[in-house]
Amino acid sequence: MKLHKINKLAFFTLGTALTLLPFAETVHAQDVLNINIGSLQSWYRSDGSEIEEGGTIIEQQAGLAWPAQYEDQDNQAAKAFWIATKNYTDAAQYGGVTYPFKVVHVGPRGADPLREFMPIEFKLIGRHDHPQVYVDGAPASDLMFIEALTEVDPDLVSDRMIYNEVNTSIGVTMIRKIYAWGQQYHDNYFIYEYIFKNTGNIDPDPEIEQQVTLEDVYFFWQYRYAASREGAQWTDLNSPRWGINEMLSTRGEPIEPNGGYPAWLDGNSAADSMRVQYAWMGRHSKAAYDLIGSPDVKYGSGRLGSPQYMGNITLHADSDTDDKRDDPYQPVTTSWEGSDEPETRPNEQFNPARMTDEWAWVTRGHRWPRHADVIGEGFPDVYEGTPGGFSNTSGYGPYTMAPGDSVRIIIAEGVSGISREKCIEVGRKWLQAYQNPSETFTFDLPDGSTTTDKDEYKNAWIFTGADSLFKTLGRARRNFSLNYEIAVPPPPPALFNINSGGDRISLAWSDEAEAAPNFSGYRIYRAIARYDTTYQEIFACGEGTDNPDIVHEYNDTSVEPTTNYYYYISSFSDGRNNNTSANPGGPLESSMFWTRSTQPAKLLRPAGESLAEIRVVPNPFDIRSRIVQYPGEQDKLEFIDIPGRCTIRIYTERGDLIRTIEHTNGSGSEPWNSETDYGQIVVSGVYIATFETPEGETAIRKFIIIR
């Protein structure tokens, strides 16, 4: 598993700094939470936006990882969220200065959690707890180590929700709810529900400092996408890691020729039906080959390393503080701005010139033509001499907010693209043509036609990712329109045990999922050699399977020595209540990430062929040599070359039975921690072990313990 630099500041700075203040107890001490239950995974900050290198891992590309079952699929370089207003006078504790334009910020490169965006509450809630997964008795799932679940609410509308409350220095309190699902049709997007209220609370304590009406308030987001960390690393160019060659586009603006989203609502089927902004990897002027999709030339597989399309959709924006209907003309700003322009660093909420420049970004309107149309077949990395590429931006407003007024805005963000299998297939064929330029190859295009142009072939398949993203965002919209009442699969088993054996790997699981009204059965999947790879189904039980009876254990005997194996178990539904516009028909299945093992199971020492081969190791056991005997297991002995199944009984020299061990895993070894059946460590002396097989064969071994 790849190791990254850990941002210790993200873990500790906020909590440590706020302990100096009398109101520190209202702030969650951990300021980064992860959502890791679906094929899209990401991290979130307690101050309201995910700034550059602001998570637990210090990487330019970190977050929005898809498909998350594979490593290094991160597609996020930085985000920012600003609130802007006109003719604003700071509260006395911030200087009492009047500004023509006031902008408060978190990101893209800075944050002030003490004086600008100040976290009040930050917690992760789950519909159910994450399962306990063990391999050979040791914790073995990502969620057991990563997920900081605060509470369990069985009535939660989603599988996971982050609740985030933040005060700002202009008196607008933000409540952000981040919803995530682990259901196969809805696990690659997040829905962000924001409520902004003019509370007048301009610092972290509960007292209200000022009650003023805010004029022309805008809520403004920046999205710096970069697809993907793996593909960017393959290029041997540094700049793709910060998104310099991303292509950006927008859909649904009312200025587009067909009238955009408002025209579609009025019945114009030719107009855009969604309000979206999105990005994908484009060409690069310094690459030796067409970089779209980032084919693997470096390591020679050809696989497309950056097939991702990343984007967001507006689901709702209040028309006014007293009109909670959706305003189809929001966002009023859909633009693309330089990711490394002065406005992006650092944040300066007391600099009037700087905030005036930022106000121009916030209120720019719909930038036309779109970025992708301007770049065309060219190179986005050299457009306007940009040092860092461009970011999608969107602004909602203007709102007049009297004390107590609130505004609700809901956005979904997702990632999609062609499958890993298609990336392998297309990339391999592309590489063959790239390496053999004198030969002619014929390629099948997505529309059924053919071409001899390897780049046309590769890019045509990559570009189908846009439709996949639109389908993803469309499902998010349908989910929202149903008030999040989509069908969900049964929960996964709460306990999943994987145990290595001598002739098998044994799996066992608990039965809680069977209480769900739509429960239909279980499926077990396996991967070989590494866990961040493709899994194959190896067993299923329940309705519609070859094993209709529900069971709670399975022995995987199709395993080879010296090979590592990884597993996950899912619960699936009967599918009878799933045929809605939000889900295709058929069974729903719980996410692989609930129970995926991240530690290997493998065959142990083969069973002994003869009772005469049985040994006790070490013999004698000398406590003075414990460091070299079994490092880290100072009281361990092992019985080796034993039968795959036998009963081991340990006696003192005078014949007192002190321990009985049932050896059942089919291996040729069984450890003993020098404890009796009552948990007492044995003393120095001579001991006798007997071994009895189910067939009644027996053997006796004598050994010495020196303590």
Question: Could you characterize what this model shows?
Answer:
This protein has 707 residues and is mainly beta. 13% of the residues lie in helices and 33% in strands. It has ten helices and 35 strands. The model is unreliable at 1-30 (pLDDT under 50). It folds into four domains: 8-128 and 141-252 and 307-415; 418-463, no CATH class; 495-594, Immunoglobulin-like, CATH 2.60.40.10; 611-706, Immunoglobulin-like, CATH 2.60.40. α7 packs antiparallel against α8.
Brief digest:
The protein is mainly beta and 707 residues long. It contains ten helices and 35 strands.
Keywords:
707 residues; mainly beta; Immunoglobulin-like; 4 domains; 10-stranded mixed β-sheet; 5-stranded antiparallel β-sheet; 35 strands; disordered N terminus
Strand and helix map with partners:
Layout: H1 8-18, E1 32-35, E2 42-45, E3 76-89, E4 98-106, E5 117-126, E6 132-135, E7 138-139, H2 142-146, E8 151-152, E9 160-168, E10 172-180, E11 189-198, E12 214-225, H3 229-234, E13 246-251, H4 260-265, E14 276-281, E15 309-320, E16 323-326, E17 333-338, H5 352-362, H6 371-375, E18 390-401, E19 406-416, H7 420-435, E20 443-444, E21 450-451, H8 454-463, H9 465-481, E22 495-500, E23 505-509, E24 519-528, E25 536-542, E26 553-556, E27 565-573, E28 615-617, E29 621-622, H10 626-629, E30 637-640, E31 646-652, E32 657-663, E33 669-672, E34 685-692, E35 698-706
Parallel strand pairs: 5-8, 6-22, 29-35
Antiparallel strand pairs: 1-2, 3-4, 3-12, 5-9, 6-7, 9-10, 10-11, 11-19, 12-18, 13-14, 14-15, 15-16, 15-19, 17-18, 20-21, 22-23, 23-26, 24-25, 24-27, 28-30, 30-33, 31-32, 31-34, 34-35
Helix pairs in contact: 7-8
